[in-house]
Design brief:
By secondary structure, this protein is an alpha+beta fold. It folds into four domains: 105 residues, Efflux pump adaptor protein, beta barrel domain (Elongation Factor Tu (Ef-tu), domain 3, Beta Barrel), CATH 2.40.30; 74 residues, OB fold (Dihydrolipoamide Acetyltransferase, E2P) (Beta Barrel); 40 residues, no CATH class; 73 residues, Helix Hairpins, CATH 1.10.287. The protein has five helices and 17 strands.
Length: 361
């Protein structure tokens, strides 16, 4: 009985083995690829990695950094929005700078008021006071002179009628009264002349210095509103309300590096493609007039002809696409820039990687 059971199990195993061999020997038709890989349309074309960017005559994208540091108080635009030159993009908290500018404005206003006061001298009220002081001094001098004349006449009639000491006092009192009159007259002339020209010039310079300080503070205050430098499209906003930004950029928690606060591009009727040619292939590049290229969109069967723009004549280390230096050898590439009209039937964005073949027309 036991041997019969073993025979049955062995037979079942043999049948399963034969069935499995038959099933796995059947050839299944391969599925067609979701898209065709990029192929060389030129026969001897040069392959290059490319990155789409906003088309500009110089540079890549427009990286915007604020000229001042602070906390972002308000963001006035959104990604993908078209803006015009001078449009405000974001506002940085300007509380301290606004107070500083207001203080310097008050100081400049005070200096101007003092300058106008100096130029308006003499004040009529002050001049009248000086005139009254002159009249008082004249009256005192006249009184002292009359007393002296009486003393002299009495002394001439009878030398014993007054003492020598009394006569000397009368003489001295008249001299003092005459000196006071001279001082009053000179004080009147000084008041009538108004402010000294050097005092006015000194106050003018102080006012100019304070006004320039206020102008500089106002200009700096305007920097707390970041504006669009050109007409274009907002591609990326890396700042956030409440976040801290500086002229060095904004801290990126993912890459632990510094990013521009806002990235802008030119109006996207046309896009650019920056291709990186390995230095060992640079000698195979066609002449500018003969250069032609096709761009293949990854994940699709779409290819787009490119128009040659320029070669950036500087071979640099191959770190542009990743922004990191990972190669163990010094691999260098030459940037070549093309452009194309943005198609309406497919979505393409700056920063997108593409495959490019470069050949001759």
């Amino acid at each position: 009985m036991k041997g019969k059971l073993i025979f049955l199990i062995s037979g079942a195993g043999l049948i399963i083995a034969v069935a499995s061999a038959y099933i796995y020997s059947i050839e299944h038709k391969a599925l067609p690829p979701a898209f065709n890989p990029a192929s060389d349309p030129f026969g001897k074309g040069i392959y290059a990695n490319g990155i789409i960017e906003s088309y500009q005559t110089n540079g890549e994208n427009i990286n915007i950094y604020p000229e001042v540091s602070g906390t972002v108080r308000q963001i006035l635009v959104s990604e993908g929005q078209r803006v015009h030159r001078g449009d405000p993009l974001l506002v940085i908290d300007d509380t301290v700078q606004a107070a500083t500018a207001e203080q310097q404005k008050s100081q400049a206003d005070a200096a101007l008021a003092l300058l106008e006061e100096l130029k308006a001298q003499p004040r009529k009220e002050n001049l009248k006071v000086s005139e009254a002081q002159v009249e008082l001094a004249k009256a005192n001098q006249k009184n002292a002179q009359d007393q002296l004349d009486k003393q002299n006449k009495s002394y001439e009639l009878d030398s014993k009628s007054i003492s020598k000491d009394a006569l000397d006092n009368a003489i001295n009192a008249e001299k003092v009264a005459r000196a006071n009159l001279d001082v009053a007259i000179k004080q009147y002339e000084l008041t009538k002349a108004g402010a000294w020209v050097y005092d006015i010039k000194n106050q003018e310079k102080q006012y100019e210095a304070l006004l320039k300080a206020f102008t500089a503070s106002s200009a700096l205050l305007d920097k707390y509103t970041v504006r669009a430098p050109v007409d274009g499209v907002v591609l990326s906003i890396n700042a956030a309300v409440g976040g801290y930004i500086s002229s060095q950029g904004i801290y990126d928690a993912y890459t632990q590096g510094s990013d521009p606060s806002i990235v802008m591009g030119s109006p996207q009727d046309e896009l650019g493609v920056r291709c990186y040619i390995d230095e060992i292939l640079v000698h195979r590049l066609p002449a500018d007039a003969q250069m032609h290229a096709q761009m293949f969109i990854r994940g699709t069967n779409v290819n787009i002809p490119l128009q040659y723009v320029r070669v950036q004549p500087y071979v640099s280390p191959k770190i542009e696409l990743s922004d990191q230096r990972l190669e163990r050898v010094d691999v260098r590439v030459l940037p070549v820039i093309f452009k194309f009209e943005k198609p309406k039937d497919i979505n393409l964005y700056p920063g997108q990687l593409v495959d490019v073949y470069i050949g001759e027309k």
